[in-house]
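Structure tokens please, single chain.
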Amino acid sequence: MVSLELIFSDICMSCSLTLLSGPDVTNLSFKQVSYNPGDIAILTAEITDKRYSKNEIDVPSQDIQSATYYIDIAPWEDGASGIDMTASDGKLNSNEETVEATIDTTGLDGGKHIIYVVGSDEDGNVGAFSAIFLRINGDVPTPTISSCQYPTASPTTSFHPTASPTTSAPTPRECKSSDVECNPDVDCCKWSWHECLPSGNTYKCTAPCKEWPFC
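Here you go.
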């Protein structure tokens, strides 16, 4: 899972350097680990405009003017609507403030929600945002996907092997006796020394010669 710190780092790599002039948001926290729908979630954070003035970078420090939080929609996205946070001591009048907000969780779905927080100083400089998860107890809604077209099932092809053609057993050859008409293509002769040979206008089983086997 991608952490909020990585998201913050990736986005701030492309941030304008003017954000260095704005206050930073640190120590974001909720009073509880999770909330039931309808509970009031208490969010606290520290807004400081002197983080870089303590280092070698010559960045002036101003008093904090505002702190704002956003639910699920980042400050730079269309439709983002920020809600003001208040100073814990009652008034924003220093360059380092602890701020808080009460978030009504009514209507929030079960699961994780991202809370973005950003601050500005009295010179109008807006700083980089920070973020934290707000966990709401309950079932996480299943997203509705309307654009997917599930493939229809492939038609079931029944395999019916065709029966092998029935081959009738060949008619046994009829072995003819001596001097009996025969068909040389299909008949055999009863005696092994006879053959189906021409005899006048037909064929008969007969010996090749009268002196057989000395033909």
